[in-house]
Structure formats: C-alpha cells, structure tokens
Amino acid sequence: MTSAEAAPRPVTGSGGAEPLLEVTDLVRHYPLTRGVLLRRQVGAVRAVDGVSFTLAAGRTLGVVGESGCGKSTLARLLVGLERPTSGLVRYRGEDITRLSGRALRAVRRNIQMVFQDPYTSLNPRMTVGDIIGEPFEIHPEAAPRGDRRGRVRELLELVGLDPEHASRYPHQFSGGQRQRVGIARALALRPEVVVADEPVSALDVSVQAQVVNLMRRLQDELGLAYVVIAHDLSVVRHISDQVAVMYLGRIAEYGTGEQIHDHATHPYTQALLSAVPVPDPRLRDRGGRILLTGDVPSPADPPSGCRFRTRCWKATGRCAEQAPPLAVPAALADDPTPARHPSACHYAQTRAPDA
Ligand SMILES: Nc1ncnc2c1ncn2[C@@H]1O[C@H](COP(=O)(O)OP(=O)(O)OP(=O)(O)O)[C@@H](O)[C@H]1O
Ligand code: SF4
Ligand SMILES: [Mg+2]
After folding, report:
1. Which of 246, 251, 309, 322 to mutate to test the pocket of ligand 2 (most atoms within 8 A of CB)?
2. Where is this region: Disordered (predicted)?
C-alpha cells in the first residue's frame, strides 16, 4: 500500500471559499503494549488512519460511521485535546498540532467542542452558571471579571434557557437542557469552529430535533463552522454541507448530503443507508436491504487493501491488494449526476432502485 493510496489529498468541502480548517493525512495510532515491568509495543490501534478534508467558515461537515471507526478520536485531534501521530490540522493556515503553551491556548479558543453525553460531561457539583463561565477562568482576556455574570446570562438566553437558572445544578435540568448548557459553554469564547461529538445521541428522539434546530440557528446567527459527528446519517444529512462516511479510521465516501444519501456509490454507505429503518411499510425494502455480515475488524489489525473488503459483497482479489484512494472514481468522472463525488471503492456505482 503506498502512502498516496492511504492518504488522499484533501477533498474540498469549502465550495471554493478559503478553508478555515484544513486537515491533511491525519493519523492517530494508540500503542498496544505488553509486559508489566518491561512494557514493549506489540502493535497499534489505528484509530484515525489518514483523514483529509477542508471546512470553510460558516459551513458544516457531518461525519458518520459505526462505533469504533475513529470519530471521537478525530474530534479530539481537531480541538487539540490530543496530538496526532502524524498529519496536519491547519486553522487559518497555521498547523495547530505543533503548537503548545500560550499559542495553543489562543488557537483553542476558536475551536471548541460539544460532548456526546450531557449527563456526564457537566460537573454535577458546579452550578450551570459556573460551568458556562469556566472557560473565562482559562481565558480571562475573553471577559473581564466584572462582565462574566452578564456574559453567562447572555449565553443562557442565546441557547434558549432562563438566565435566572444560572444558580441551578445540572441535575435540575432535562437532558436537552443540559446539552444546551454544553453548547453555551462551547460558545463562551466565541469560537469560529464547533466540533460536536454525537451531540444528540444521548437525548430522547423528541428532543433531538430541538437541539439540532438550536445548532442551526446559532450557526446562522454567529456564522459558526461545525463538524457534527453522528453514527446515523439521518442526523447529519439536513444540517451538513458535506458528509464524510468513516470506516475503520478512514473516509470511505465524501459528498454533499444529497450525494451521500441519494447517490451513494460506496458499498459501506449503501449498507448503512439500507439499515436505516423506514417507517412506511410501502417504502420498506425498496432498494433491498443489505445485511452486513461479520464484525467490524479490529483497528489494531485492519484488512489489507480496502478495509471494508471483509464485509463487502463486491470484493475481489484487487480489493485485498490495493487500497482504493478517496477520489472521484474514473468510471464516474463524466457522470452528469450527483453520483460523481469522491468514493474510496474500486467498483463504485450507485445502486439500482430495485437491486
Ligand atoms: N485512548 C485510547 N487508547 C487506546 N485505544 C483507543 C483510545 N481511544 C480510542 N481508542 C480506540 O480507537 C478506536 C476508535 O475509537 P473512537 O472512540 O474514536 O471511535 P468512535 O467512532 O468515536 O466510536 P463510538 O461511536 O463508539 O463513540 C477504537 O478501537 C477505540 O477502542
Ligand atoms: S474496493 Fe472492493 S471491497 Fe472495497 S468497497 Fe469497493 S468493492 Fe468493496
Ligand atoms: Mg465516539
């Protein structure tokens, strides 16, 4: 496998605009060690293994994939909570992976994270006012001490919560309200980029749409760029300008919400889509269900060539030998339909409706 195959050039999601975030060949391997006294490395978990994309100001990239494919690791790398094994994360042209100290803190102000679980990510012993105002302790320059209470009230209002409730504790709020607190905290420093790691998956379905709508409104009002992570394509489809489908640490397919949802060409995406339950029985099984067999392989020992090949019904010998690059497939280069978009498959094609 050549590095060119493993690490495609960034596929542009910025629609021609100057990228705010530019991620190139991002890799994060966790060492696997053995032994108690003499710990030696016996391998590595390839959690993120060659991810590239760009994100423009005010735009949204959705990232979807099954559990363990590297989504949260990618999120932590983007906000600087972890350093990559290799690769670059450029924010406004500057590689943030090499920064430390004050320079890193300054950049991190602009790239904030919303965590998956609003039940565990908020300190139960702090009031929500203190939680939302905590970033000001790390970045005192963002709000002079005398202004902080006012800023916290503004932030509560911004996310649709009662400013009078600043002195309450997290357990006095519902799940949806707690996630609003998490969002307010992420916005305290007025970031340009918000990375939201499964922001609604811990919430009741009835509340999910409200939180997604809030995120949309905040994006419009504040001009935020989002990376929104989900395991379900339906969550990100309507809020994303671009969607990246991840499998075992890599992007399998990349395109607009419409391209991915209605014109998927990668077998893995097609399988993900066919697994989405369709409530209307007349539509059920339209296009035929694809039942994925076999477990997801371990990221410590991924298959050679195409990582999806052990579960792919179209796999051939070529798939075991050559890793397909993430690029517009040659066979679709002149296709006039939305099927023409990057797909890391040697045999990329859309599914016939009655296939
Ligand atoms: N700190 C760590 N040390 C070792 N392995 C790790 C670490 N963090 C994550 N991993 C492994 O890296 C892989 C990717 O994990 P990650 O949490 O990024 O996946 P995910 O897509 O967010 O999954 P989920 O949908 O379950 O949240 C998994 O195999 C996980 O066990
Ligand atoms: S490259 Fe081969 S194994 Fe991989 S998705 Fe395409 S057909 Fe399947
Ligand atoms: Mg995760």
Report:
1. 309
2. 334-355
CA atoms of 305 and 288, how far apart (whole Å)? 27
What's the gap in Å between 24 CA and the centre of ligand 1?
A: 20
Tokens 């959690």 correspond to 47
Task: List the chain pLDDT tens, one digit each, 355 residues.
Answer: 333 333 344 444 444 567 899 999 999 999 988 887 778 888 899 999 999 999 999 999 999 999 999 999 999 999 999 999 999 999 999 999 999 888 998 999 999 999 988 888 899 999 999 999 999 998 988 888 888 999 999 999 999 999 999 999 999 999 999 999 999 999 999 999 999 999 998 888 889 999 999 999 999 999 999 999 998 888 898 899 999 999 999 999 999 999 999 999 999 999 998 875 544 444 444 456 777 777 889 999 999 999 999 999 999 999 999 999 999 999 999 999 999 999 999 999 998 654 4
| Smallest CA separation from ligand 2 atom 1, residue | 345
Both tokens of 285, joined, read 């099984």
Report helix, strand or coil for 206.
helix
| Amino acid making up residue 240 | S
CB neighbourhood size of 119 (10 A): 14
Q: Where are the alpha helices (DSSP H) in the chain?
A: 3-6, 71-78, 101-108, 128-138, 148-158, 175-187, 205-222, 233-237, 257-262, 267-274, 317-321
Ligand 2 atom with least separation from CA of 314: 7
Å from CA of 5 to ligand 1 middle:
23
**Cβ of 307 less than 6 Å from ligand 2:** no
Contact yes or no for 336/318 (Cβ under 8 A): no
Residue identifier of the C-alpha nearest atom 3 of ligand 2: 309
Ligand 1 centre and the CA of 73: distance in Å?
A: 6
